[in-house]
Structures are given as C-alpha cells and as structure tokens.
Specification:
Elements: H1 2-26, H2 30-34, E1 37-44, E2 52-53, H3 55-67, E3 69-85, E4 88-101, E5 106-120, E6 123-132, E7 135-136, E8 141-142
Parallel strand pairs: 1-6
Antiparallel strand pairs: 1-2, 3-4, 4-5, 5-6, 7-8
Length: 150
C-alpha cells in the first residue's frame, strides 16, 4: 500500500513536470521550460541536429523554436502513460503543437513523445527526451498531418 501511494505521488509529480513544460512553452518562458531538464539531458528532436547533449543544446533549440513562432505556442498532450520504478520513470504520449509561424502560416502537428526522468535529491528531472513522427517510406516524407484515432 505504501509503495502504491508513493508511485501515485511520483506520477503526479511527473505530470506536474509535463504541465509546467506546456505552460512554459505557451508563455515562451525559457527559464520555466529549462527548469524541468537535468543539466546532462540528451534529446532527440524533430529538427536537427541528430541529438542534443546537455542543457545548452536544449536551450539553443528552444530559442530557435520560440523565434520561429508569432505569439503563443499551444501544446496539448493526450494518451499520457507514466511508469515509475524507484528513481527512474518514463512517460509516453501523443503531443499536438500548434500556433502561427513568423511567416504567418498556421502550423498544427501531432507527434510522439517519450520522456525519461530521474529522481535526484527528491526532485524529478528529464534526463532523456525523444520526439518522433512516422515517415511514409515510399515518399520519404514525414507525416505531420496524422491525428490520433480516438
């Protein structure tokens, strides 16, 4: 019973990280977004480079991403699954991001997000994040227009 309660508390803390990141992105609050990542985070994002190592890579990518949008960047996360095992946890979800590019184009895409967390000194931080989209193997094009089935 105590273990189940502890896992529920950890899951709620991880959901709070997800929520804090979404709110930070919406408000273009670089500090809030970066605060949920470990200094040695490794991320695999949709945009180059092949991987980002360390918080500096996340910061650079975030600044470029924010600069490419006008106004708010809205995210909605669905089908969130969080698994906690001691000091390590992961989540996977479907993420929708939409807003207006600096060119005035309405952008709206769904993609898959898998995130790994580590609890250090009682605090959960993101240590690995992987964002991906399916690819049409016949054309080689990314399928940004896919939507969840539900």
């Amino acid at each position: 019973m105590e273990t189940e309660v502890s896992e529920l508390i950890d899951q709620k803390q991880i959901q709070a990280i997800i929520d804090k990141k979404i709110i930070g992105i919406y408000n273009r609050d670089e500090h809030a977004v970066l605060s949920v990542y470990a200094p040695d985070v490794v991320s695999f994002d949709l945009a180059p480079p092949l991987q980002n190592k360390g918080i500096a890579g996340i910061k650079e990518r975030l600044q470029g991403w924010f600069a490419s949008y006008m106004g708010h960047i809205t995210q909605k996360v669905t089908d969130v699954n969080i698994l906690v095992n001691g000091e390590i946890a992961f989540s996977h979800s479907l993420t929708r991001t939409y807003g207006t590019s600096i060119q005035g184009e309405d952008l709206d895409m769904w993609y898959r997000t898998t995130t790994c967390y580590k609890k250090t000194s009682g605090q959960w931080l993101i240590v690995h994040e992987h964002v991906s989209d399916p690819v049409d193997f016949e054309t080689g094009k990314v399928l940004f227009d896919l939507k969840p089935n539900n």
